[in-house]
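Observation: inputs received (chain + flavin-adenine dinucleotide).
Thought: call the complex predictor directly.
Action: predict_structure
Action Input:
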Amino acid sequence: MRYKKNYETDIAIIGAGPVGLFTVFQAGLLGMKSVLVDSLPELGGQLAALYPEKPIYDIPAFPKILAKTLVDHLVEQMRPMNPIELLDTKALQFTRHEGTPYPLHLATEHSFQNKKDSIEVKCKAIIIAAGAGAFDHKKPPINNLAQFENKSVFYFVKNPKDFKDKMVVIAGGGDSAVDWAINLASGGAKKVIVVHRRDDFRAAPQSVAMMRSLVAQQKIELRIPYQPVGLVAAQHDDSQLRAVTLQHLDGNQEDVAADIFLPFYGFASSLGPLGNWGFTTTNRGQIEVHHGTMQTALPQVYAVGDVAMYEGKYKLIMQGFADAAVACHHIFPLVHGQALHFEHSTTRGLPNPPVA
Ligand code: FAD
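Observation:
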């Protein structure tokens, strides 16, 4: 277990996408502590998981910024607020304990290296910044997949340098598969093989063109129409991959040598257990909130960003940032027991960071 069993804080923030990250900062600016929970192993939500290398053009003050760079800036801005960051941790449900200093108890489940642990976050308010819901990786139906996870099988690339001089098999035909094939082939992997069922990639056309040019230069090998059907372990260590078994569409199988397998089949997302909390949700899985406060139908429970719905709502990062400010200002009296005297950040300055 990487974390403690219990935390006490002012606000539990569910979701570490761009809006959850900015919510940590807003809360801290108003002197409120937070615990940030995300089911993914890294910060950044959709920006990190779905399109890290894409430029965004509609973030105020940034004419053009890569999604991953925006995440870096948001992390740099929020970290001085000393949040507790619980990654690989899914929010499940909460219970009320009125009359206690921390009346909301959020139950979460932390998964790490195939072990699951319960963590409770006691707080005064919950802000849900869950986007489209908790992401779950779509995994290939390979029986022994789990025994290699986090050692030889990854659903994310955290640090491309980890794959230097490795033989890497990437499966999939979307942006992640193509972008990482290019990145790793150019970044020192010993060999990169891309496995896909058909010769039609759903990634950005310029990325597909770049990948094909690396194929022509023999820096990437394409295996089409194949799919991965098995993983072969090294003799000395059953979590260390030795080969990936590929099956041609005609049924023939062969093993290709590999140290690393990256199945990039995208994500499935859903509100999951949050959908049963009792607030009103739209048929698109968004939570209805009061626009003036971002409060849901449940007292002390707020929603911001893509997951929140009110008249005039667009799923835009900049609107999510404003949602975060509205929610935190409304929560201030709950935490501090006094009305907020509104001040600009230029006047207020950065507070002494709340101690986590
Ligand atoms: P998300 O980024 O979805 O993050 C939500 C986080 O909550 C996730 O990390 C998820 O794992 C976590 N979570 C959910 N449920 C739980 C749970 N129960 N427990 C723990 N964690 C949970 N927007 C723009 O403004 N401009 C653009 O140019 C733009 N381009 C885009 C391009 C693409 C390809 C895509 C897919 C989206 C684009 N968007 C763009 C939309 C933008 O990405 C979203 O508006 C933004 O990510 C919403 O941020 P969020 O923090 O609300 O949610």
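Thought: report the result.
Final Answer: Residues 14-20, 37-40, 45-47, 50-51, 56, 58, 90-91, 129-135, 272, 274, 305-306, 315-318, 320 surround flavin-adenine dinucleotide (CB under 6 Å). The longest strand covers residues 237-248.
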